[in-house]
Amino acid sequence: MKNLKILIFSSLCLLVASALHGQTMRPPNPGFKNTIGTALSTGVFFDKPAYFFGWSVDYAHVVREKWILLGGLAYDQEHKTEVKAGEMKVIHTITPNVAVGYAVSRNLAFGFGIGKGMWDSDNSEKKMKFTTSGNLTIGVLASYVILFRGPHGIDVTAGLERGLITPETNGTFELGYGYSF
Fold first, then answer.
1. In order of start, what are the domains of the chain with their CATH numbers?
2. What residues contact 132, with CB distance under 8 A and at least 6 apart?
3. Dihedral (Cα; 83, 52, 73, 172), 10-degree rounding
4. Which of 59, 119, 48 lies closest to 89 in space, CA to CA?
5. CB–CB of 150/35 below 8 Å?
6. What is the pLDDT of residues 75-113, one digit of tens each?
7. Considering Cα of 28, then 32, then 35, then 40, what sign does the dihedral take?
8. 128: which residues sit within 8 A by CB, 6+ positions away?
9. Alpha carbon distances (Å) from 130 to 9, 31, 123, 127
10. Disulfide: which of 66, 133, 152, 170 matches 45 by Cβ 3.0-4.6 Å?
11. Rounded distance, CA 40 to CA 30, Å?
12. Strand, coil or helix: what is 56?
């Protein structure tokens, strides 16, 4: 029965469809309820000639031993080739995000989240500006903690993201560090 619940939850996450640039779903280290962390990320878009690099900070809290609530702020640089001009365009974005996850085991967690690009450089001055037109994205995440050392942890996260305003899909991979307390 437990394996069936895990399979259903995992399938639901994949159907929701998609990871937030630079967001991890790290389970706090055993014996701790809270984690602050940071992650480096990279990824590719599946429906346009673009890739990105990112960095994030986040806070995770465990509720009822298995559920994880996470909030974070991610920065990323999207590099895309302009089809008409054949030149590389770089857009910088800052995205607040939230996620909910479930710790399947001590090392493995799945989750889904939502994020909204609030500041970007996709304007005529190419400077970071507050925007209300930034893409709203949903994502699914799978995270695996590869190292526990007291309150310190290192994790890898993979995910899929889908834009709701600008329909585009990307895959992402993150390497993160978390300090649990």
1. 2-180 (2.40.160.20)
2. none
3. 120
4. 48
5. no
6. 999 998 776 766 788 999 999 999 999 999 989 999 999
7. negative
8. 92, 94, 119, 120, 121
9. 36, 40, 11, 10
10. 170
11. 23
12. strand
Q: pLDDT digit string (tens) for 58-80? A: 999 999 889 999 999 999 999 98
Q: How confident is the model at residue 22 (pLDDT cuts 50, 70, 90)?
A: very low
- H or E element at residue 5: helix 2-16
- Residue 47 makes CB contacts below 8 A (sequence gap 6+) with 168, 169
User: Hey, what are 46's tokens?
Assistant: 């599946």
Place of tokens 């054949």: 86
Distance CA 55, CA 78 (A): 12
Tokens encoding 175: 């390497």
6 within 8 A of 13, measured Cβ to Cβ: no
**122 by DSSP, 3-state: which?**
coil
The model scores a pTM over 0.85: no
Beta strands in 17-135 (DSSP E): 34-45, 50-63, 67-81, 88-103, 108-116, 119-120, 129-130
